[in-house]
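Record type: ASSEMBLY
Status: queued
Input:
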Amino acid sequence: MRHHFILRIVAKLLIPLILLFGLYVQFHGDFGPGGGFQAGVIFGAGFILYALVFGVEKAGNVARLTIVRVMVAAGLLLYGSVGVVSLLLGGNYLDYSVLADDPVHGQHLGIFLIEVGVGITVAAVMITIFFTFASRGRS
Amino acid sequence: MISQHLPALQVVIPLLTAPVCLLFNNARLAWALSLVANGAALVVAALLLQQVLTAGVITYEMGGWAAPWGIEYRIDAVNAFVLLIVSAVGVVVLPFAPRSLAKEIPEHRLNLFYTTYLLCLAGLLGIAATGDAFNLFVFLEISSLSSYVLISLGRDRRALTAAFQYLIMGTIGATFILIGVGLLYMMTGTLNMADLAQRLPVVAETRTVAAALAFLTVGISLKLALFPLHLWLPNAYAFAPSVVTAFIAATATKVAVYMLLRFLFTVFGATLSFEAILLPSILLPLSLVAVFSASIVAIFQDNIKRILAYSSVAQIGYMILGLSFASVTGLTACILHLFNHALMKGGLFLALGCVVYRLGSAEISKLAGLGRRMPWTFAAIVVGGLSLIGVPLTVGFISKWYLVLAALDSGQWWVAILILIGSLLAVVYMWRVVEVAFFQPAPRQGPRRQEAPLSLLVPTWVLIGANIFFGINTDLTVGFAQRAALWLLGGVS
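Status: finished
Output:
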């Protein structure tokens, strides 16, 4: 494991920045270009880079497949349950206006939660797809 | 309070149960959850149908955004009926799943199967429920992607190539549909179907609208496997797990036929799609060729699943034939056959599932003498086959009756004769199965076969029994189909 020295150093430097940028795209999506899908892809790409450089086994220790699978489901559930909560609060399905006292705040909160849900699921699905292909024939 | 949210709940219940099934790595629990979700969807569909019949169209604003801007769910006589068919077939097929899947899918994949199944169900229900052209495309992708996965789970490795073939063809179809929707959006600036219907007549004379109609028709025809775009279907049906074949054969193509009805009659309107553009002169011959070519190919198949798959292509031909008359009787025949064919093929493919459960394959040569060993299974195949042929007292007769009436109404008596000849071809390919099973002696060597377990026979006979029940008691289905046909021809207003 002594070769690919430069690759490993650069990857180590870049991966935190990639993850941070993913979070930026996620949370700045309200004000600028971005949103859950793009953020999820960027975040997932950080893990995929790690797996490419340091090997699938090591990456598997960071992102355990059981946890990733829970994340796939959790993101979609978060998205859907925002809709269910707005139903219970007397609005239509996914009507964010009823989520807070002030409709504007409600809209803000609703789209924020939904984009988080999208981000979680997309990142987890990206990682799952990569792992599925990368670990083919090993198990 | 809940009754006004039914259109959303129809889709949301299966959609949100799917990730819950993924969370618990437990096949039995996932199955129970799917059954509950599917049952709830059926109750919702029944309530919706009742509301539509008493109070007329139901609309629902997703997210509280008003109609032309936001996504609107719009339930009328047509899609309420489709929603009921899809969720009812699911409820009957699911109890069949655990026993049958135990032999076909590895244990650790079972909860993934139920997750994917629920996503497929949610997609199909979503296509039917939505009143927004782009939302329809999104649900189409959900249902298509999950059905590729479901098909690829088949035990035979050829299931993978079959699923891949379907994926390529299905994606081309979906892309065509998206292009069509995009062109409509370009011309009208709206995606809401009711709004599109109002705005399209103004720009109807343009080439762009004609191109949109062409793209949508071809794309949807790929999805519903209209001849000559049916090539993905036989392999997909033959190699998928038995439950999946029964579910998809009874629902997916039906929903695609609904899409075609919706676009041709509601969005474009009967006058635009049937008078300005010569669509009937394309659909009528294609559907007749579908009936004859697929039935003839079915006669020469060695695998019963493939026989029935080709027969599905032929039966879809009958549906499109009814559609191409663009008359009330024709559309009634189309919608009736949509329901009736779901009953026939659902029942027949479940019966085949029983055969595959005992034999491990559906090769016709292995069936020799099985008619006596598995009397209930093969009685189901016989009754289903009679219904497929169109014998009186079965649902098949009712659809053929209305189809012939529609052909005579339109003054094309030769089409009526062709329909009858097509039914005779069905006699030929179903007779091959019956002959081998009942009139050939069982091989002396080899294991003695037993009747399929009750948990498989009951769902099979529920669907087969429905073939007879709705064949005798026709008021209900014919009434729904006629209302739906009148509604489609009356426009959106």
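Annotation: The interface with chain A takes residues 1, 5, 8-9, 12, 15-16, 18-20, 22-23, 60-64 of chain B (CB under 8 Å).
Annotation: The mean pLDDT of chain B is 88.
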